[in-house]
Backbone:
């Protein structure tokens, strides 16, 4: 019998207990042993729980989990840095294996955690930290090892994907779609971390570390959220044969890594363009495997708990096989991250202008002066004295677009540059 | 340094060598050791190879691989049962770990092979046997272990998916699409194994064993190929909001397993309906994880070799960690396979009739007598004296459809029951 201790009995913690309650026979058959939840750290002993659990297992004292010599595996499902990081480090110091679902902690402190774990001879698994139930960490560490990974494109935030899907399919504006997501529990009361792309940034940092074998500083990842995407942009995207998705992008180039999170135009026949609602999809290119995509529910109680329990089972298999640190995934390399100014893509640009003769010519001249050539131009009258110009460029370096837009904004007939969205292909 | 021996230097064997040639530094970094290809069994020493390989490594004597005490891992990429099975068993007897890409062997003899391997204390890995490079065996064995798997739906034969895609997108007839697939090397000169569904059957047997924890006899899997699917059926499918795909279906029911391979109607917004060309997709439902799909190239030299090399790396990690049989995946259970007569689905039925009054009434009466209720009816005049009737039923047990169709065929105004295709949802 293997004893585990769980830190946290929120949504994911309760999901873990539910899995043990419902699938215990099956799991016992798969590993030839019983998993025993010995202690669960909670904040409030008397709170009503929506899962069947023996109240005697609950404790408010972290040491009941972290210091119990009979507990082999500590499961951290509190989230955030404090106090989760302290608990995890203490568990490792006490030679306990750790399973965590904590993306922020793994993105920011993963290096230190994994290095300490290796030193102490324990395993730290974190499948649930990225894309919920979708197998992605383990495939990266074990299934794609024959490949040089060239690219990762991920829809790895379910909240923003839900919002963008609602905007696209039902013509909702951003605020209305956000409110709907909040009402359904898909977005939090303060949605900042999701809609500003921070959540996706943490996950990309974790994936890029594994894919490219490098340390990643989360602050090096250019991050732009979806708050400025409008239903008008989505409509134009559709006209042009695209969907707009919040993408996490990791690319290996000769001179370094492209790491960025931003809304992007992606062609409708790309498999990621079909990933809708709260679903996640991670598209990976390797130099042997070609293209694969892993698709599923990137969040939610049971999918996330599914990943946590799979990690617990994996560690139990290690324990029973008498092995530890079988797969090592921290590297000493540091591959530089490329400056956003030097990335190349096609750009969608929407500009509100005064409906005067010559406005298009002035804009086109500025772009031409900066070497930006235009693939398509749509001009529509909106109100009486205003018009809307939508440009779609050929491949061009970001710096030229930024420079051109500074000048475009100075043209007297230009009212506002409404949107600038990169294409990904 | 780990020595491996390879049996076979065909497409996949050459792909493995190519990966070692191209990604050796990367692999060395990942596992902290060098992989040395010590011997490669070939049929012809003097044949020109399209991959760079030292001719001194080649041998025509299997014992140079199977009996060499310095070889730790034997890689079998010959395919088929003879002589591959003999070689694999001999390798295991000689305490060598085995990596194989052989679906037929693993589907038919996997049980015996894995049991012997366990007895002898070696590992046998076979990720490449199903869906080429797509990680599926390892996710089944390690990532989904917290779940009761309820359903697998797979597009796991690239050849037939290519043919059906061409029929759908370019309105080609089956024979023309097959010929095109043959010209492109996607289909063999004798395409039987692909187009009759046998290849998919092997793969389903392997997946079902892992998913449901049971022995599977391949002959228990109902199998129907795509040779009778016409472009007319595909057109009607589209009218009704469906795609037609060759699906491998595994479902856990209270009374046993549904295991079947056949062309099926699948709704256009289902993720599998978007899996086109030679791509594969495997859709899995688990009671915790919900729905996931794994998508990628299900065949081809490099994707398949990618999976083989990942298995080699996994075994090397086991060797270096001093562990073996860490994950066991053979079970002693035998879950019965449910008779096709008892499955329930909706059916698409296309009937050619004489364009006479009362023909629809006679057909409808027969279906009504057998409890089959119709969801939609399309009747079209085709030629002067003939008409085409397309029926789409509500859920009904297969037995009732078969019985009804026996009687429908006896109606004098019925010329031919052209197609009967099950829906999957």
Residues:
């Amino acid at each position: 019998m293997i004893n585990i201790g769980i830190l946290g009995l929120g949504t994911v913690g309760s999901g873990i207990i539910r899995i043990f309650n419902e699938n215990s026979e099956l799991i016992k058959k798969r590993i030839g042993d019983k998993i025993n939840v010995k202690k669960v750290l909670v904040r409030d002993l008397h709170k009503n729980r929506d899962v069947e659990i023996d109240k005697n297992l609950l404790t408010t004292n972290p040491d009941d989990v972290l210091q119990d010599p009979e507990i082999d595996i500590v499961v951290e499902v509190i989230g955030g840095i404090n106090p989760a990081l302290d608990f995890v480090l203490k568990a490792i110091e006490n030679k306990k294996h750790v399973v965590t679902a904590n993306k922020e902690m793994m993105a920011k402190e993963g290096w230190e955690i994994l290095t300490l774990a290796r030193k102490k001879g324990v395993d730290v698994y974190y499948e649930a930290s990225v894309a919920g139930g979708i197998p992605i960490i383990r495939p990266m560490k074990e299934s794609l090892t024959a490949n040089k990974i060239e690219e990762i494109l991920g829809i790895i935030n379910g909240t923003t994907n839900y919002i963008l899907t609602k905007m696209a399919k039902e013509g909702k504006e951003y605020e209305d779609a956000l409110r709907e997501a909040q009402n359904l529990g898909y977005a939090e009361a303060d949605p900042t971390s999701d809609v500003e792309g921070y959540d996706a940034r943490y996950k990309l940092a974790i994936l890029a570390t594994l894919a490219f074998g490098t340390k990643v500083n989360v602050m090096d990842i250019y991050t732009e959220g979806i708050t400025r995407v409008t239903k008008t942009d989505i409509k134009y995207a559709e006209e042009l044969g695209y969907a707009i998705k919040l993408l996490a992008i990791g690319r290996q180039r000769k001179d370094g890594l492209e790491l960025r999170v931003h809304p992007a135009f992606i062609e409708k026949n790309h498999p990621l363009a079909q990933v809708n609602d709260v679903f996640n999809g991670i598209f990976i290119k390797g130099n042997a495997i070609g293209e694969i995509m892993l698709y599923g529910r990137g969040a939610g109680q049971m999918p996330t708990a599914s990943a946590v329990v799979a990690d617990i089972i994996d560690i139990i298999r290690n324990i029973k096989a008498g092995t530890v640190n079988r797969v090592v995934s921290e590297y000493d390399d540091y591959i530089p991250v490329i400056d956003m100014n030097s990335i190349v893509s096609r750009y969608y640009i929407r500009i509100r202008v005064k409906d005067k003769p010559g406005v298009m010519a002035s804009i086109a001249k500025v772009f031409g002066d900066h070497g930006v050539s235009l693939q398509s131009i749509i001009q529509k009258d909106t109100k009486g004295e205003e018009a809307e110009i939508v440009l779609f460029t050929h491949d061009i370096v970001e710096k030229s677009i930024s420079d051109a837009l500074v000048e475009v904004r100075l043209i007297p007939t230009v009212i506002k540059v409404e949107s600038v969205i990169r294409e990904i292909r």
User: Anything to note?
Assistant: The mean pLDDT of chain A is 96.
